Amino acid sequence: MNGPRRRARTYGAVLAGTLLAATTACGTVAERRDDARAAADRFEQALEARQRAVMCAELAPGTREELEESAKTPCDRALEDEDLPAAGPVRHIDVYGDQARAVLAHDTLFLAHFTDGWKVTAAGCRPRGEQPYRCALKGG
């Protein structure tokens, strides 16, 4: 019976080490919140300046792909037709692991963490009480 116990201890040690590496590699909650805020700020500044190429670079791959497929045009041109509000400053950031919600003065953005940083997965989002947000721009 020493074999199963030994494997269980080894598995537990490997799992604990993996979890420790995963949590320390992602940074503290404050660091993740600051990084998500910076991504939301970059997206909003690009929106206000009408820098659509910068906005496209701040979008998550799936969001950019869905936008291009639905518009049948490249991202920067497709954004011309999107009715995204000038959202103003970030008021609050909620971070849940690799996901974040940025509440701005006039909009809500959702973000996800990728290997190259935080990216916007949804924008132009409006709360609907108990129902999920309705977003003008979102990925699949």
Overview of the structural elements:
The chain has a single domain, classed as Nuclear Transport Factor 2, Chain: A (Roll). The protein has a 5-stranded antiparallel beta sheet. Helix 2 runs antiparallel to helix 3 (52-58). Mean pLDDT is 83; it is low at 4-25. The chain has helices at 2-25, 29-48, 52-58, 61-71, 75-78, and strands spanning 90-96, 99-104, 108-114, 117-128, 131-138. The radius of gyration is 19 Å and the shape is globular. It contains 5 helices and 5 strands. The N and C termini lie far apart (49 Å). It has 140 residues and is of the alpha+beta class.
* Largest sheet data: 5 strands, antiparallel
Mean pLDDT: 83
**SSE class:** alpha+beta
Give the helix tally: 5
In percent, how helical is the residue content? 40-55%
Oligomer: single chain
What's the domain count? 1
Rg from alpha-carbon coordinates: 19 Å
SSE string: HHHHHEEEEE
At CATH level 3, the topology is Nuclear Transport Factor 2, Chain: A
The fraction of residues assigned to DSSP E strands is 25-35%
Order of strands, widest sheet: 1-2-3-4-5
- What is the rounded distance between the termini? 49 Å
Report the count of strand segments. Answer: 5
Low-confidence stretches: 4-25
CATH architecture: Roll
- CATH class membership: Alpha Beta
Shape: globular
